[in-house]
Structure formats: structure tokens, C-alpha cells
């Protein structure tokens, strides 16, 4: 009491594990009522949209002192179960798939049952963490569900960025011609392309 709280840094999630080198990550400012999300691009032609599962929101809430604090109240307001309790990934796949609490799951995910596809890793057991997690838990149990894939680029994605208000996303890929060097603009409400900006003739390296 009366002493300043000591700050600590710790890793609480490993939201995506990929078979290719990552090229870009674009955090997207979520609209009201939505969870945290980001768009990632790697050495492939598709952009992947990942959104925080319920376990991440609840873990962050628990680690930041609960709903009593201002930051906790803001996080609690973002609670939503639309994108699953956690995520799992196929043994030979690249996509994260949402997993959901089963009917007999314990509240808060403390060891409850959950459902997933037949080809997904059976050892993944998303659960709320209340202290810095161990390496094994980070590697297996903290994935985020992949909610959308954005197709359109003809070559490997190279860079991406989101507008400050989170309404638009721009992306570009490796290119040696004007047609493939186009910057694609996406609407984050529908995740559909809005425009292609043609000007460059080689790879756009930064947005």
C-alpha cells in the first residue's frame, strides 16, 4: 500500500504460427463492440485476418487487474464470443481455426471440453491465464482464430498498413511489372477490395 506498482513485461500469446516467413503485420483499429484484430502477410499470395479469441480477452483482463480498473472496464466491454474460445491449427496446415466451448465446458475455459475439426491438433486447450504462461502453453494454447483470407495479389505479399480509424487496409506484393505492383485497398467492414492504385512498376516496400 502506498508504493508504486512494479511494471512487468511478459509474453501472453503467440497468436499465429506459420510455415512461411512473415513479411508484414498490420494492426487494425477495431470498430466499437469488436475484439482486437490484425492482418498478416507472409511469403504467399494471401493476407490473413486474425481476431482475438475469448481466452485472450479474458486473460488480458485478468492480468490487468480485473474489471474494477478503468483499463479492465474497457476490456470487459469488448467481450464477445463470436470468434471462438480459442484456436487450433492442422498438423500440416497454415490456417488457424476457431474452437468453441462444449456444453460441459467450465466457465472461463479452465479445462473445459471444446469442439474442433477432425484434422486439428488435439493437444490445443485454450484457457484463461492469470500469471505469466510457460513456453509449452504459449506454443500450443494461445493461437487466434483466422476469420478471413484476402485474395487478389498475384505474388507474395510484401507490405500492409491500416488507416488510423481501422476502416481501410492497404497491401502490396512483390512485383516486376506495373500490373502486379498495384496497391490494393480493402474495406475492413466486408474485407472486400475497394480499389487498386496503379503507379509503381516495381515492388512497393512500405506503406
From TrEMBL:
Pathway: tRNA modification; 5-methoxycarbonylmethyl-2-thiouridine-tRNA biosynthesis. One of its GO terms (biological process) is tRNA wobble uridine modification. GO terms for cellular component: cytoplasm; elongator holoenzyme complex; nucleus. It is found in: Cytoplasm; Nucleus. It comes from the Eukaryota. Keywords: Cytoplasm, Nucleus, Repeat, WD repeat. Belongs to the WD repeat ELP2 family. This is Elongator complex protein 2. The lineage of its organism: Eukaryota, Viridiplantae, Chlorophyta, core chlorophytes, Chlorophyceae.
Amino acid at each position: 500500500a502506498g508504493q508504486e506498482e512494479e511494471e512487468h513485461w511478459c509474453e501472453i500469446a503467440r497468436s499465429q504460427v506459420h510455415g512461411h516467413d512473415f513479411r508484414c503485420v498490420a494492426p487494425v483499429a477495431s470498430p466499437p463492440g469488436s475484439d482486437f484484430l490484425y492482418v498478416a502477410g507472409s511469403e504467399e499470395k494471401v493476407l490473413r485476418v486474425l481476431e482475438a479469441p475469448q481466452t485472450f480477452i479474458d486473460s488480458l483482463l485478468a492480468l490487468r487487474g480485473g474489471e474494477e480498473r478503468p483499463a479492465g472496464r474497457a476490456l470487459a466491454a469488448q467481450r464477445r464470443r463470436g470468434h471462438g474460445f480459442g484456436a487450433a491449427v492442422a498438423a500440416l496446415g497454415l490456417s488457424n481455426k476457431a474452437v468453441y466451448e462444449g456444453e460441459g465446458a467450465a466457465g472461463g475455459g479452465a479445462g473445459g471440453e471444446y469442439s474442433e475439426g477432425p484434422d486439428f491438433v488435439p493437444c490445443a486447450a485454450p484457457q484463461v491465464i492469470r500469471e505469466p504462461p510457460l513456453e509449452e502453453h504459449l506454443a500450443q494454447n494461445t493461437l487466434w482464430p483466422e476469420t478471413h483470407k484476402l485474395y487478389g495479389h498475384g505474388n507474395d505479399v510484401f507490405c500492409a498498413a491500416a488507416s488510423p480509424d481501422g476502416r481501410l487496409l492497404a497491401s502490396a506484393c512483390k512485383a516486376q511489372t506495373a500490373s502486379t505492383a498495384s496497391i490494393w485497398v480493402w474495406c475492413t467492414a466486408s474485407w472486400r477490395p475497394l480499389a487498386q492504385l496503379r503507379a509503381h512498376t516495381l515492388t512497393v516496400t512500405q506503406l
